[in-house]
Input
Amino acid sequence: MEKMLKQDEIDALFEAARQHANAASTEEAAQPEIKARVVPYSFATAGQISNEQLRAISMLNDLFARNLTHNLAAWLRTKFHVNLVSAEQIPYNDFLLRVPEVNYMAAVRLEPLGVLSVLQLEMSLVPPMVDLLLGGEGREGILRELTDIEESILASVVEIICRELSMAWQPVGLSFNFERRQMQTQAARIMPVNEKTLCLSFEMRMPHSSGLLNLAFPAVVANTILRRLTSDWGRSRRHAPETRARMESAARKIPFGASLQLPSVRVPLREIETMEPGSVLRFDLPAGAAAEWRVGGQVLATAEAIRQGTRRAARMERRMERELA
Output
């Protein structure tokens, strides 16, 4: 016995089939299309520094640039500013091609790895530094080869740079030791010309000149130390508010050396040699010149020497705004 369907039953069957087909097409469209993405592999890019490693390098060397800015400015007694401008990985031969014919290059030993790196200073910075250390005003000079005396003076500047590098790279266990100056022909034998090096460039600005400080590290640094940088510095370090409050409270109890003194002046050596008890040494300062209050070697304010009870004291007059060149 055949079953006869009514028109409304036939319409209901067609509607159910249509809804099932629409649901199937919607589900198929929602699934992403998976395609194999194949790109050619380049062995030239193997071992390249990652962005995370570059961020870690920048953190370390920004600290180095700040410390070198303050220490060299105090040592040279002039405005001085250092900042990191680039960090890249290039073959050692490309680094050598960037070095001008007249330059200052030095070999720096990295311990405990026992390998040599290269420090290169643009000669535009050398005459002002030597002039300042010899009592001049830090004027620019002619780009020429250094005399033995000038080379010995500049070696003290390189030793300060190595000391600040050691302090900044202490978290990764590296120390920098100045070996000797290298001629450009000698520098080509420090490491293979095809070796991939980590090159850091710093801009150094003085009142009358500016130039670049370039550092080239061998591949062993990039392959071992950078991995340690990534693991140690790549993680964000956050402390609880209570911990930060305790750290700030403890930091405020750290004692700093402070002094109240007149501004620096230059005195001829003949006047110092002839001094005796009771002699009066005249400074080239106005009688009303205010004394400087220095903390940690940095000028913070001008102040007046006073007495408070049985103790000496200082009354602050004007806070000094720190300026960068």
In short: Residues 51-76 form the longest helix (26 residues). Residues 289-325 form one domain. The beta strands are 81-91, 103-111, 115-122, 175-182, 196-206, 209-217, 258-261, 291-295, 298-308, 311-319. The first strand starts at residue 81 and ends at 91.
